[in-house]
Structures are given as structure tokens and as C-alpha cells.
Amino acid sequence: MSGRGTTSLTHEQLQALGCIGKDMPAVTSVVPPTFPPLLTKPVKKEITATQDFKILWKEAFLSNMRDSSYFTVPRTEKKDVQSYSDQIQNALEGSKDKSKAEFPWKLMPNELAPQWKKRKTQDPITVSKRKKARSENIVAHLKSLEDQDKSDEEPETAVKKNESDEEVEELLEEDEEMDDENDYGENYFDNGEAYNEEDDNLDDGPVY
Amino acid sequence: MSIFYGKLCSVILKQVFGKNVQSVAECLFDSISRSLSVIIKTTNLTRREATTALAILIKFRLVTFTPSVSGLIPEYSLNRDAINYILRYPRYVHLAQTKFGENGSSIVEELIRSGCLPASAVIIKCMNNYDNKVKPELYRDVFNTMVTENYLIRLPVPKAREEVVSEVCPTLSIEDYEVFLPPDLDLMELMNVQNGNMQHCRDHEIFWQINFERFHQDFRDQVMVSAVEKKLGASAGECFKFILKTMYTKTNPWQQSYSNPFTLAEVKHLIDKSSKNLELMKYLDQYVSLIAEDSLGFIRKTGDMGGGQFVVDFERSFEELAYTTVESIITEKFGSKASRIFRVIRMKKYIEQEDIQKEAMIPAKEAKLLAYSLVQEQFLQIKTIRKAGGGGAGPAKAFYLFQIKLRQIVKMLLDICYKALYNAITRTDFEKNENKRLIDKSQKLESIVDAMRERGDAEEYIEEIRETMTPPEREIMDNVKLRLKTLANAELALDETIFLFQMYLFHTAYRPPVKTK
Amino acid sequence: MSSVETDHQLLGVIQSNPNGVTNDDIVKSLTNVSPQDRVLALNKLLQQGLIEVLKKGDKLIYRGKDPKKNSALPKDADNEEKIVYGLIEEGGNKGVWIRDIRVKSNLNLTQLNKILKNLEGKKLIKAVKSVNASKKKVYMLYNMEPDRSVTGGAWYQDQDFEAEFVDILNQQCLRFLQIKRDGAEKKREGPLAAKQFSCCTVKEVHKYISDLGISKVTLDEDDLETILKTVVYDGKAERIMTAESSYVYRAVECPVEPPGLVQLPCGICPVIKNCSNCGDVTPTTCEYMKQWLE
Fold first, then answer.
1. With respect to CATH, is domain B339-404 assigned 1.10.287?
2. What pLDDT score was predicted for residue A159?
3. pLDDT at residue C84 above 70?
4. B363 → closest Cβ in C163, C238, C256
5. At CA B113, angle to CA B110 and CA B115, rounded to 5?
6. Distances (CA, A) of C48 to B357, C34, C122
7. How far is A44 from chain C (nearest CA, A)?
8. Which CATH number is correct for B85-210, 1.10.10.10, 1.20.1730.10, 1.20.1510.10, 3.40.50.300?
9. In angstroms, what separates the C-alpha of A50 from chain B's closest C-alpha?
């Protein structure tokens, strides 16, 4: 449509088409409506079980991707995009392993790979302790949410609300901490001369 | 490529990978290839944001790279066609499920969610995410079957260091025999990695991806089989399935114009072996003739060997299917009289206005208006033929003939499809935003209720939580959900139209004459 | 020599050969007539409709016109009347437009109208409204049966196309083809036999429609074939050539479902060209989307 754009017919062609003359409505200066009435409605078809499966799958896939570290958001917007419910969701799902971004750096140009930062493998016991602590937090957090919900319209609970908000933030901070640990090369700066050095590191690169 | 396709790609990527990936892809969309520094400059992203976005795009096979002309830096290019495959993800998963069961769909799902993975990682993810009770060997076996049937494809690996020409980009290569060679999987190793006793399996550097072409081959088969079924009945449809199966044993599935020949005897052999349809077995030769003689033109007789020699004619098949689709769209958009006019012109090839109304038996005025609308919306073209006037005096007499240029129409409609998809996605975002507060509340409640259930709270208590959503709110919420579902369904349906048109363009594309050496 | 004499001589020369004569023949026979007079005389005879010009190869041939044709015209008719009458006669049963008569006769409109009125009054000619060009009258001899291309045949009532009548016939023809096909499918004698049984000849359809008695005019088989072709153009039937090189018709099903594109408003949208991110037509402000999602 773009290039070929609007079809403009010559006067001759229009005449041959019979579009000029008595058969055609006279040209009027009345502006046509923005949305002229449709001849028919769109064809309606029953949503089959197959379609339903696909719709549900796609919804789950998209929300999964949004929660994954493959979902990229500009730094400036990071704080705003998480809706309240996202935060709750994160708090709830924090105990599950969020899918981490894993990249086959060897299949990519060197300049993309972050400077590999060696870090200690996390002691499994500490991790599980942390997870436990988090789930306890969640229980407490949920409790407060429920309370808050029940008294949604009561102004007296304002204080309480603030408390719970703080808690959410706390949980979030913890999340971010975790993220940072999973993250690579926060202070990464490429001077463009580090290729060889990186190559060495890449050999025992990220874990899959 | 159309601007609508660009806009569509942009919203799809935003939906799946967020804004940074979107900006990088938008930057790459307009050019053949770009370097990292140009990408950073154009997108205003930080270096890290840009490299991450590129890494994601490469991992999901949406961006490729080559060394620049100078050989000093890599340049990145967008794999534009693959972006609309994202809309097909649900179809790939569903197909894997019907063909390989739950395990098959889990494998495809994991590969889709990560772009590409080593086989061992896929299986470990499947076991972690789904039913832990499924034994790893089951996943391994399905994985191997999917590889041998070409649904999964091995990615090229970097060449050994001494062979590498440029340090800037890895040189990726793969031997032909390896592409569909099942992975080397050790189950003990798998268990060790899953339990955290080992870092990774031996195959950790061999990556796999779903083979889109193989899935598309099945989609194409489905389109053709269902057309035969709808027009000539269920048994003919089944017959055609076997015809395709026979044909694939001798033909590269993406042979462009038509297949290599196969015989009735071969089809019969296959049907006797694997069909239970007595009607089909009894009248097989008749069914094959029925399909060969039908105006669909899916198969064509080329000889008498082996009870009759045939080829599958992809070019004609998809021309016919594209015509039918275009006609159907015209019927809905302009009414049945317009599609009658369109078919008159299709059958007559070139025709004058006056003859249209006579053939179509439509009042002159209506016929003129409809033909005019069809010309205006680019479903019809006008061909002008000038005849020199008698004795050179007076103006040359001109004839105006209507004609159809199918390829042009299909391209125009594909553009509308892309626009419609863009609109559906935009509208979905809009509906979600308009009702954000309510959707958030409803999701919040659902999570709380789920958590309470898990904790074993009393049902009445749970009910109380549920009731924080007022009946009017619930009604609005139900409506929103319905609207989102209608939109999601339209997206899937649109992709089927897009697929058919893409097949038409592929199979009827201009082929330069083969040069003999 | 007076001009009348020249005319007579010239006519004599031309009529002497029933196959017509060339200009050279005339020059040889009428040596005493100046070229200028000859041309004048030829033109006069042509205008009077007494001779005609034909082209043979690259030569022009003058031939006398059949005097019997003019016999219906009263002897007292004047030259102009003769010319007009002749032109109308030439038009046969397809008729002649008044504009063409005027151009060929070189008469002015008032004069021509007067002559036409006069001839019509004497019931020598008649005016018939043509269906091809609405409101344009064509003239033909009074006792002529107008050609189908003028009246439009069975599908026209007073030059109005009877669209409803055509639609009803189209539906009835399709119904007949479908009944025939449904019957064929029950026979279970293999797919080719079923296909054979589902084919209908025009004769069968003609009989079915005649028996229905829905047509107030008599329709012949050609008329029905015209209708059957519209069923084919609707994509609901196929036309198959038989061994006897006549055509049979059979009902068919459309091989594709309504495409995804028309399952949402954008596929049938009349203003999709105006649709973008800003302006009056956008996916978020779209009236069609709104109605569709309601």
C-alpha cells in the first residue's frame, strides 16, 4: 500500500469505468463520516478448544517472559513498570527460581560478553535459609495485605498501610540484591582491549 | 518490507522482550547491518543495555552478525522474517503436543522460552518445571525423536581457535550430518547436574533450537489437507495426507514449484500399510483421480507408470488457495456481488466494464460502483489498450480492460494483515491499561487466594477475601477478560491468513531460468 | 450537363455492375464529367441512399443499393426522408442512435426530429429504449423485432434490469445443484461416480425451473445457462466441459474457511487506509473495534 499508495485514475479511465456521469452520485462537499457504517460484521467463529489452548499458553508465555531476565526495561523506567500486583507476585514467587538470563557467549561476538566476574558458588545451606526467611516474610506480608484489604475504606488504617508498603519495599530490595548477584558485570567497562583476557575467562564461562 | 511490518515487529518485541530490545531492533530494522557503537548512539541506551539486548536477540535467533568490511568490529543484522514467528509460538507448542504429547510440548516450550539451549539443559528444565515424576529417559527419547524427525535443529558451533579468521566474531559452522544428529546424553550426568553435584553435562556447548521450517511444513500440509477435506470430503482429505507423505519420501519439502513424481502404487502401498479407511482403500485410484481432476489443482498427472504418476503442484495449489482467500475477503468486505464480479474477471482474464454486468447479471449501476470500489481498494487493475484511430485523424481509441494481479493483491492484503495484527496488539494493551486497577486487584486477589489454599485456610475465609471484589467489578472484569480473549483469538486467526499468503508468495516467486553449464 | 443528368448517368454506371464499380471504372465511363462534379454527384447519391461505398483491398468500390428495401417508403417521400429511412433500415434490429443518424445524414437536429416524428407517425419506424445505454433511444423499422442486446431479453422489464428475478433464479439453480449433489453422495458407489451423479445438464436445470413456475416469462436453455454461470461466478458451482463439448454444472463447497483477516474489523474496514497511531482513526478510538468487542 505504501509505495503504490493511492490509486489515482485518469478522467478517461473513470469515464470508462462509468464513474463519471449520471449513474454516479454527484460529488458533494459533505465530509464523509469518520466511521461509515459497515456492510457486515466481522465473521464470528466459535473459539475451539485448540484455540483456547493457544490463547492460554500465549498469555502464560508472555507473563513468563515479563518476569524473566530476558525482559529489558530502560533504567529510568525500572521502578515504574512494576505494578503493585507485580510486586506481590514477585514476593510470592521469590521463593521459586526466576529464570535467569543465560547466554551462550561463545556463539556471540566478544564485545557483547560482560567481563566475567568470578564469584563464590553460593553455599546451598545459606540459600535455603534465605528462602525460608523469605517465605516467612511472605506469610506475614499476606496477612497484612488481607487486613488492609478488609479495611480498605477505613482511613484509620493509613498507618498500617504505610507499614505494609515498607514491607513490600523491603522485599523488593532483597529481590534486587539477589538480582545483582545473579547479574553480570555491574561496573563493566569496555576499553576495547580486553578481548584476550575475556577469552580466557569464557572457557569456564556461565553455567547452564 | 512494509512499514506496517516494521511497526508490528516493534510491538511484538516490546511485548516479549521489553523496551530495550525493542529499540535495538527498531534501530536494526531500517538498515542491512549496524555496529554496536551506532546502535548505542541511535538508541540512547547504555552500553550494557545495548549489549544485553543484542545478546538476547542473538540467543533467540533474531539477530545475526558478521565482521565488518574492515574486519575490526562485528556488525549486527535483524532476522526480520523470524520476528513474526513469535506469534506462532502457541502453534508450535500445540503441534508438538499433538504429535509428541506433553513431553514434546514441554521440550518445545523450554526451547522457545530460552531461544536456544543444550539438550541436557532442556531436559533438566523440563523436569524442574513440570512433572518431576517423568523420568529423564522419557524426555531424552522424545528429544531424540524430535531431532530425527527434524523438529529440533542443532546450531552451528564456533570453529576451533586455530581455524578462526577473525577474533571479532566467532566463526560458526556445522557439518551437514550433524544438523539432525541426536545429542550425546548421559542420564547419570543429567541427574548429577540436576542435584547440583556437577556443573554441567558434556553437551553443554551444543545448542539446539526449534526448527521452524519443519513446523511450517506441517502447517502447510494442514492447510492443503483441510482444503481437500472441505471440498472433496474426509476420505479424499485422508488420501491427500498419504499422497503428501509419499511425496516427501522423494522430494525436498521446500521444493518451490512442484514435487518430484510419485506413483499411485506407492501411495497404495502406504495406505494398505497404515490406513483403516475401507472406503479409501476400495476406491483409492478413484480418490486420486478425483483430486487430480479437481479445479484445486493440488496434484497433476505426469505419466502412466506405476498405475499413474503424479506430482504435487505447490505453485497451483497456493495460487488457488490465495484466490479463494482473496475472494472470501472481498465477499465479506464488499458483498457477494463484488466477489462475483471479481470471479468474472478472473475467469475472463481481461474484460470491459459493459461485459462485466452482462456476465455477472448485476444492474449496470451497481456493477460500476462495485468495480470502481474494487479498483480503488486495489483488488482490480485497469489495463489501457490504445488503438490508432482510422486514418490517423482524431484521438486514438482506448479500451479499458479490467484485470487481476494476484501477487499484488496478496502483498497488499499481507500489509493489511500486519496492520490488523498491530492494531489487535495495540488494542490489547489499551484494554489492559484502561482496566489496570481492576486487573491488578483481581490478580492480587487470585494470588492471595492461591496462597491461602496452599496454606490450607478455611474455604469461608477464602470466600470472604474473594468478596472484596464487588459484583459490578466482577462483571466488568469478566467483560475485560472476554474482550482480551477475542483479541487474542483474532491474532491467532490472522496469523493463519498471513501464513497462507506467505506460502503463496514463496511457491509462486519468480525463478530465474536454470542455466545449464 | 446538368447535375441531375450527371446523377442519373452515374447511377446507371454503378448499377450496371451488381458487384460494384471502382473509381477508375467511373472515370472511364463518364469522360465528359469534371472530377469536381463527379465527386459532388457521388456524395449526393450516397446521401440519398441509392449507392454505398465498400472497401475491397485498398480500393473503394461503389455499389447500387437494393431498390426493394426502400419499397415501404411512400413514393412521395422526399430525399431527406429517404436518407433517414435508409440509415434506420441499415441499423437492422439493433437500432440506430439519433446522434449517429444526425452525423451520417448531415441534417440539423430540428429538421431530423421533424422527419423522425413524421416517419414514426406513419408507423414506418419506431423508437426503442436500449438497455445498454440507459435512456438512449434507438430507431428501427416499425416491423422489426428488437435484438436481445437492445431489450436485454428475459431479464428486462421495460428496460429495467430485474435484479430480484435474477437473484431468485440464481438461488433456485443453486438449490437444484445442491439437491442433486446431496443425492449423489448417498449412492456410495465411489467418489468418481458421486461426482458424475452430481453434475447437472442445462436441460435438467431448465426443466426444474420451468416446473417450479416461478418465471412469468418463458426462459429458454440459454437463459438458464446465463443464470448457471452466475452461480459459478459466486464460487458455489463448477462448470465442467463434457465429451460432447457442452457444459454441465455441479455444486461445490468453498475449500477455505472465512480467513482470519475478516474475523476482526480491520479486514472489512472501509477506512483502514486512514488508520494509524494518530488522527481520527486509531486502533484505540476505532468505533468498529468498540462495537466488535462489546
1. no
2. 41
3. yes
4. C163
5. 100
6. 39, 21, 20
7. 6
8. 1.10.10.10
9. 8
Contacting residues for B244 by C-beta, under 8 A, at least 6 apart:
B221, B224, B225, B312
Residue A136 belongs to domain spanning: 48-97+120-187
SS3 at position B275: coil
User: Taking a contact as any Cβ pair under 8 Å apart, which residues of chain A between 92 and 151 contact chain B?
Assistant: 92, 97, 99, 101-114, 124, 138-139, 142, 145-146, 149-150
Mean pLDDT of all residues in chain C? 85
Does the beta carbon of B420 lie under 8 angstroms from any beta carbon of chain C?
A: yes
Point out which residues pair with C247 in neighbouring strands. Answer: C241
Pick from B167, B440, B448: which is nearest to A84 by CB?
B440
Residues in chain B where the model's pLDDT stays below 70: 1, 130-132, 161-166, 388-396, 511-517
Task: Write out chain C residues lying below 8 Å of B233, CB-based.
Answer: 185, 191
Pick B172's closest partner by Cβ from A53, A107, A138.
A107
Q: Please, which pLDDT band fits residue A185 given cuts at 50, 70 and 90?
A: very low
Q: Which of A7, A51, A62 sits opposite B378 (nearest CB)?
A: A7
- The CATH number assigned to the domain with range B216-312 reads 1.10.10.10
B295, B341, B420 member nearest C267 (Cβ): B420
Residue to mutate among B109, B414, B444, B483, with most A CBs inside 10 A, is B444
Fold of B3-78: Arc Repressor Mutant, subunit A (1.10.10)
Q: What is the pLDDT of residue A8?
A: 61
Q: Where a domain ends, among C120, C152, C184?
A: C152
Cβ-contact C271, A36 below 8 angstroms: yes
Which of chain C's residues have a Cβ under 8 Å away from the Cβ of A1? 273
Range of the domain at C269: 261-293
Q: pLDDT tens digits for C128-169?
A: 877 766 567 888 888 777 777 777 777 877 667 888 889 999
All three cell numbers of C100, joined, read 449517429
Question: What is the arithmetic mean of pLDDT over A170-182?
Answer: 37
Query: Cβ of C268 and A44 within 8 Å?
Result: no
* Angle between helices C79-90 and C109-121 in degrees, nearest 10: 80
Q: Is residue A106 part of a domain?
A: no
Per-residue confidence at A133, pLDDT binned at 50, 70, 90? low
At residue A124 the predicted structure's pLDDT band, cuts being 50, 70 and 90, is very low
Residue B9 makes CB contacts below 8 A (sequence gap 6+) with B25, B29, B80, B83, B84
Global pTM? 0.78
For the stretch B106-149, pLDDT in tens is 999 999 999 999 999 999 989 887 656 778 889 999 999 999 99
Q: What is the ipTM of this complex?
A: 0.90
Query: Is residue C191 within 8 Å of B235, Cβ to Cβ?
Result: yes
Q: Which of A122, A141, A61, A64 is nearest to A96 (CA)?
A: A64
Residue A87 has pLDDT above 70, yes or no: no
State whether residue B232 sits within 8 Å of chain C by CB. Answer: yes
Instruction: Please check whether residue B233 touches C, CB under 8 A.
Output: yes
Q: Quick one: C90 and C120 in the same domain?
A: yes
Dist CA B182 CA B454 (whole Å): 41
In total, how many domains does chain C have? Answer: 4
Q: Which residues of A touch B109 (CB under 8 A)?
A: 61
Q: Is residue A174 situated within a structural domain?
A: yes
User: What total number of domains does chain A contain?
Assistant: 1
How far is B276 from chain A, CA to nearest CA, in Å? 25
- In terms of DSSP bridges, do strands C21-22 and C59-64 run parallel, antiparallel, or are they unpaired? antiparallel
B321 touches chain C (CB under 8 A): yes
